[in-house]
Amino acid sequence: MRSKSSFFIIPYVLWLLLFVVMPMILLAVNAFTNGQGQVSLVNLRAFLTNGACLKMMVNSFWYAVLITGLTLLISYPLALVIAHCRHQRVWLLLVILPTWINLLLKTYAFIGLLGQHGLINQALQLIGLAPRQLLFTKTAFVIVAAYIEIPFMVLPIYNSLHALDQQIIAAARDLGASSWQTFWRVVWPLTLPGVRAGVQAVFIPSLSLFMITRLIGGNKVITLGTAIEEYFLTTMNWHMGSMIGVILIVIMVLVLLATSGKEQNK
Amino acid sequence: MKIIELKHVTRQYPDGFTALHDLNLSLESGKFYSLLGPSGSGKTTILRLIAGFDQPTQGEILFNGRKINDLPAAQRPLNTVFQNYALFPHLNVFENIAFGLKVKKVPADQIQVKVDRMLSLVRLEGFGQRSVQELSGGQQQRVAIARALVNQPKVLLLDESLSALDKKLRKTMQFELRSIQKQLGITFIFVTHDQEEALAMSDEIFVLNEGRLQQSGSPSAIYDEPVNEFVARFIGDSNLLMGHMIRDFEVEFDNHRFECADAGIKPGEQVQVLLRPEDLSLVAPQQGKIVVEVLSQLFLGDHYEIWAKDDAGFNWLIHTVEKAPTKRCGLHFAPDAIHVMRLGESESEFDQRLSQYEDNEK
Fold first, then answer.
1. How much is the pLDDT for A264?
2. Mean local confidence (pLDDT), A90-118
3. Buried b / exposed e across B265-299, counting CB within 10 Å, b at 16+?
4. Are strands B32-36 and B187-192 parallel, antiparallel or unpaired?
């Protein structure tokens, strides 16, 4: 039995080795060597002493916080509404549907909406307002990123709401709790695992967004993701790019540890 | 004093299913009531209506004479022990019990005192800091009871609260529930499908079937004088036969005439006759009222369960403490072991008839 089950593991182990472990090793090797192939901490030193790099790191973190916060603010009420709807599956499908569309297409759609001659500016002109700069702003970047991440936040929250025992809610009401008290003292803490899963699913990818920063943010927002792209494709400094990649991974691991937190409640 | 009254309460669901038909109930303060019936009888619906989780389509629910149809559950002075306890899994035992007090903003020192008192009432001293998932079924049950009682409700509703426990624990909890109820002197409304449980604990039982009240009364009244076949079959084992009245205090069934304890029924009227298996005994053939042939005997520890067939072909169920003396023997029963039931007689008609001829006897 044992040998049989380990046999089936082989493809996955190979997969992990080739596409997860190997790239990480390559990344680390690149990050800790200089152009002459010698082991060195020059890239790390460059990163830590360069004000622009540190600012980028803080920027990435800050925008990921903003995006995750906005996504949560929209997704929790949405999940709550869906969990109480009659046609839950239909609404859920509508939430998931946009994830089937290519990310680039969705981003271009937003360019069409937000541009100088876009739908929103046309509408503004109709009511007599001058066209505004909507595209290539930091706000637009956060909103579009949040829009793209919403399904990944709604799903885990909806699942934990759906799994909630209705009798427990009835018990809270029975014991005299108002709707708000029932939500705050019972529903929210019991759906926290879903929120945590959603935050992880949104925060970590948000750290390394780069395409949206260019197309919607108009390079006004420079995150670590953009920096990596820059180093790899434009300045061709793979060692520095890898260093930033390693730093990004470290941040991601830290976030994962921080959000997976208290599991003893289970 | 009446604490809860249901007047002409009907609950119909949007799909047309009627869970309760024109139900009238009246509950007095300080008693232990059971709502007894099979699943789908409407007993849980009644509980949900009283608790405030559901509203009647017609009729009134009164609490201390005040209509509470539209009062939200949170504001009703009663609490519920749910079927699967519905304890808050993210809170420990203390926090679970304190929940109702916390949402009412009771000061922390008072909460401490009240919760401690409840923990000792349900014999869980020292369990305050435990997680509720660590507790056994019986302990979770006690936490659920304490969580409800700490709010000092006027009425405690219990929804099939013992059905998840094993038999032995259930017996212990029955005893404890009853003693808690006596100690606190508040009204308990216990929903169950287990007739033994209802008989053991209640001051008064309401027997329900298909959304209608079949009979209400003390456990002994319901057991001894069921108004109809449903109640007779649902509560206890029974031998049911068709027959007809000859005159007052005489009934014919199974091709024999017997003296009985019932009256006030027209001579010749078709009736149903109930004999409880434990009211029957087996004697020598010539001493019995009917001769029967023993088909099977099972020893069940405290009694024998015997099946016997009479000459007319009816199969009798008999519970005795002694074995059947012979293969053919006589079946003996006292006149008051025969319970005569009129077909389709309602509970109020039954009560009326009973009081009539009981008055005549005096």
1. 42
2. 88
3. beeeeebbbbbbbebbbbeebeebbbebebeeeee
4. parallel
Provide DSSP, A11-72. HHHHHHIIIIIHHHHHHHHHHTB-TTS-B-SHHHHHHHH-HHHHHHHHHHHHHHHHHHHHHH
CA-based nearest residue to A227, from A52, A33, A64:
A52
What are the strands, taking DSSP E only, across chain B? 2-12, 18-28, 32-36, 58-63, 66-67, 78-81, 155-159, 187-192, 204-209, 212-217, 239-247, 250-253, 256-259, 270-275, 281-283, 290-299, 304-310, 315-320, 328-332, 338-342
Q: Tell me the shortest Cα–Cα distance from A81 to chain B, in angstroms.
A: 20
Domains of chain B: 2-224 (3.40.50.300), 230-361 (no CATH)
Q: Identify the residue among A164, A166, A175, A182 best suited for mutation to test binding to B, counting B beta carbons within 10 A and taking the highest.
A: A175
Residues of chain A above pLDDT 90, percent? 41
**Nearest CA among B91, B188, B51, A266 for reference residue B101:** B91
Which pLDDT belongs to residue A266?
37
| Rounded mean pLDDT, B125-129 | 92
Domain ranges of chain A: 51-260
Percent helix, strand, coil in chain B, to 5, is: 30, 35, 35
In sequence order, which residues have a C-beta less than 8 Å from that of residue B55 and are 6 or more positions away? B49, B69, B70
| Interface confidence: ipTM more than 0.85 | no
Neighboring chain B residues of A175 at a CB cutoff of 8 Å: 74, 79, 99-100, 103, 147-148, 151
Distance CA B80, CA B87 (A): 12
* Cross-strand partners of B271: B243, B342
Interface test with A, best of B48, B71, B80 (most A CBs within 10 A): B80
Do residue B82 and residue A167 have CB atoms under 8 angstroms apart?
yes
pLDDT in tens, A178-195: 999 999 999 999 999 999
| Sheet strands (E) in chain A | none
CATH code that applies to domain A51-260? 1.10.3720.10
Rounded to two decimals, what is the model's pTM?
A: 0.80
Contact state of A167 with B104 under an 8 Å Cβ cutoff? no
Return mean pLDDT, chain B.
Answer: 90
Interface mutation vs chain A, best among B75, B97, B102, B103, most A CBs within 10 Å: B103
Measured between beta carbons, which residues in chain A are less than 8 angstroms from residue B99? 172, 175, 177, 185
